[in-house]
Amino acid sequence: MAGPLALGILVSGRGSNMEAVLDAIGAGQLDAEVRVVLSDVESAPALRTALSRGVPALHIPTGKYRTRLSDEAEKEWVRVLREHGVEVIALAGFMRMIHETILSAFAGRIVNIHPALLPAFPGLHGQRQALDYGAKVAGCTVHFVNEGMDTGPIIGQRVVRVEADDTEQSLSARILEQEHELYPECLQLLAEGRLRIDGRRVRILSAQDALRKECNDPSG
Ligand code: GAR
Question: Which of 99, 114, 125, 143 is catalytic?
Answer without folding.
Answer: 114
